[in-house]
What we know:
Structural class: mainly alpha
Shape: globular
Distance between the termini: 42 Å
Number of helices: 39
Oligomer: single chain
Mean pLDDT: 89
Strand order of the largest sheet: 5-6-8-7
Amino acid sequence: MLSFLSWYLLVSLLGLLTFPLAWRLFPALADRGYSLSRALGLLVWGFVFWLMVSLGIIQNDGGGLGLSFAILLGVSGWILWKSIVNRKSSVVNWLQSNRRVVIATEVLFFLAFAAWAFVRASNPEITSAGGEKTMELAFINAIMRSPTFPPHDPWLSGYAISYYYFGYVMTAMLAEVTGTAGSVAHNLMLALVFALSAVGAYGILYNLLVARRTTNDEGRMAEHPSSVVRRRSIGLPLLGPFFLLIVSNIEGFLEALHAYGLFWPSNTKAFNFWIWLDIQNLNQSPSQTLGWSPRFYWWWRASRVVQDFDLAGAWHEIIDEFPFFSYLLGDLHPHVLAMPFGLLAVALALNIFLGGWDADNRLHLQWKGILCAALVLGGLAFLNTWDILAFTALVLGAFLLRRVRQRGWTWLRLEELLTFAIPLGLLSLLLYLPFYFGFSSQAGGILPNLVSPTRGAHLWVMFGSLLVPLFVYLIHLRRSEEGAPRWFTGFILSAGIILILWGFSWLMGWLAWLRLPEVAMGYLGSQGVATPLALFLGAGRERLASIGGLLTLFLLIGLTLAYLFRRADSAQVADGGSSSTVHRPSSFVLLLILLAGLLVLAPEFVFIRDNFGNRMNTVFKFYYQGWELWSLAAAFGVAVMFQDVRRAGAWAARFVPVMLVVLMALFYPVLSLATKTNNFQIPAFRQTLVSARESGDPAPLRTAARVWTLDGAVQFEREYPDDALAVRWLQSAPMGVVAEAVGERYASYQDYAHISTYSGLPTVMGWGGHEGQWRGSYEGFTQREQDIRRLYETNSWDEARAILEKYDIRYVYVGALERSAYRVNEIKFQQFLQPVYQGGGVVIYVVP
């Protein structure tokens, strides 16, 4: 409880102190960036601290944290003082006149933070199986122990972390300032990111709705000068966090039907539904007692909806997470950590679109805006490199759209776009240059996806809860705004995009056939075909059989482009653009829909090459970004229709399908929360109270509240109590490399590397599979594994000493895992090394 309160107070103070900076940077937003001030403050503070430590100006300690915080405070304080001097427009005056949205934002942040902290307290464990939490905790603890940056890699001694680790730096900063253990900080950071995303989505939708209302009021006031400006709504923007964070895919609804036994048994015609749907495990008869609530690990399947098969019939795993699943799973992975800052980039793009940084110079933007954009986009690359493409495209698209709305389309607009994009890209790179010096990746270019399209059924199970509101809104848009859509232009462009991607994928395949014939022949063999023609024909049959997904995206992108190119805009911008067209927020929302559609479309034809060898990771990351953008657009669409529609018939036509699909999408969060948290541990708490009452012993009452804890180390302490005590000693021991047991070759998700993970000290070899992914190669890992085995098993002290010197090992850890993994010869350690810790079967030797 105290750790939660300390984090809440620290982040709230950070947001309050950063707001003058946000107020200055986001002049076109109705909330002046208030909803995003916490995220902005954390980004700026983290950047200043990381950069100064990386350059050797300060140390990674309390003094460095204080100095970097003081720099942020000084900048924000100077802006606040200047605004107070200018009494006509001050931060204080704004806060007084906008207290309703300020209070709403604060209440939402606290409730979201507290709610997800309670969820994590109900299942706080950091386990090795089925997630990345062990890796993430290792990074957090390693950063907290590293005196300088880049921080040491906890699983590969002698190397720095080769990963996008900015989010873990932020986590470690908050943990250091509040005195929170890394295992607690992991769960608190997840709750914090959830809350920051909630208020970020709320603020974006609030700003969009206010911009729309302002535009409508301007038009209404021009026609009816006596009209009264309507009050701003603070309730409808709640649809933003609702669609982003709570609304889920429809797989949970299907799980409930399956668990209840609907459309079974297999001798009925309805059984064909599950076979046709073909989602893993759902295409088999229920194996549990029938009931509406599925049990055990059913909730995992919602992230594996899309099924890929090659022409030979082999199945390939595809990941298709969505935000609620990510927060439920509890992994503090980069795609989750980056979410509030992705929303910050959306707000930044909206500010550009609304003219917040307009300037009469060659760039058509103020330099403070370009610097802010570079800081945010460069930070996103450091947080989650996959995000840089999507959100940079959004910022550039918003700039281009505004210029077109202002001045109309000419080829000069592309020149202006490049004039903005080049300095933005260079500045984004320069600000975070120290990160790139030590960064390597498994990504290795682009490969064609020739034979694995997404079926329409799977696409609709995955995105149906967003696609239905989006299509309904696009139909509503035809009647709600002026200007005839260019249907022909929109659908021709949509078809052209698809054909270009299809042609590009086959062009890459053809070039591979010419330049790498042996590789191409191997690929043909894996597909069960002998010639490129057979591959082409087989791939064509697969695409036709799965045409529903492509057809859905074709319609959505075509409709969106038709509205973006509506005829009225061309006429109205001829004289420089009227306010209503230049600031029309629906155009920005259409940009969100279009960009997300392209992100979801791209993996149909291409994917990023990595160690997985298929499109699994590309679908995962692109679909996730698509969900973020589509959810904001869907929330805006539903809010707009709620404001516009008054007639019962029109209301039913729009909201009945939306309500039905949202209801289906809510099955997943309701049922999965109960399963994952064991009904929020309430049964366990009640059992503790019953035991106390029946035994007459008050002792259980003192531990009843411990049913809920934010400490992710509880499972480790319960399953490995001796190791947990030894780790506690190592956490306060001097820095040094620790030798511990290494798992199977290139293995991950095993009960190894616990000591380095929980202590923050580097080990010679941790999870080899992950290290190979981060570095793009497994070179040298086998030697490290063999050396550690020889260190423990050899009878020769000289051989052991050579290994100790080779890896600069300071501590040799001998526990139950080492004794079970190796034939440990401990005599040499006892003779030549000093035991500095002994307890419960664990001995830690220090190398002099």
